[in-house]
Amino acid sequence: DLDIAVWATLDSWASGGNQALAGKWLSTGNQLSYQLRVNSTGNVLILISTTGLGGGAVVTWTSSVALNLSAGTQRWARGTLDVNNGAGGSTAKFYTSTDGATWTQLGADVTGAVAAPFAGSAALELGSESAGTTSLVAGRIHRAIVRSGIGGTTVADFDAGLCGQSGYTDAQGNVWTVNRSTTGRKTVVQSPAARSARSVI
Fold first, then answer.
1. Which of the residues 5, 15, 120, 162 could staple to 33 if both were Cys, CB 3.0 to 4.6 A apart?
2. CA 8 to CA 56: how far, in whole Å?
3. Residue 71: CB partners within 8 Å, gap ≥ 6?
4. Which is more confidently placed, 192 or 26?
5. What are the start-end ranges of the H helices in the chain?
6. What is the pLDDT of residue 133?
């Protein structure tokens, strides 16, 4: 089961393109696993690949309503996925929050077939996919929390407010370092040993 929450300020929450918030989604080497995304119209999606491949191996759950947030709004977006709901299917739920503590469900439960993500070796990546090449976020990611199981153990917790110029180590032992990009933005990269992540902040 998955539980991914991202606190972000996007230039547009319905940008006309996909914006990858957080996930392990690397097309090279067939290392697609899972991702939380905002699509072109402002709906929140959970995507998984059951085999690491694209195409028919990718299963998608899409929020039944869009976020409908104004440009530049700061908000938490969260998606949870029960890969086997005990009734012969899977259930995804989507939420928003202004404080990361009190959550409001976004639309209705979204059901599908039983499906679990591929346990691949791709990086945990924030603000983009496939090593920063596609589905780029326009805006800022302030924090991202990935849990093992719904409401379960936190396995990664990126906090831009703690990162500083040289990086930091989160409470889970993931080491984050900061590297300047050629555009002058800061790109945060987690150590390879902890499966790297990057975020424009």
1. 120
2. 30
3. 10, 11, 12, 13
4. 26
5. 160-163
6. 85
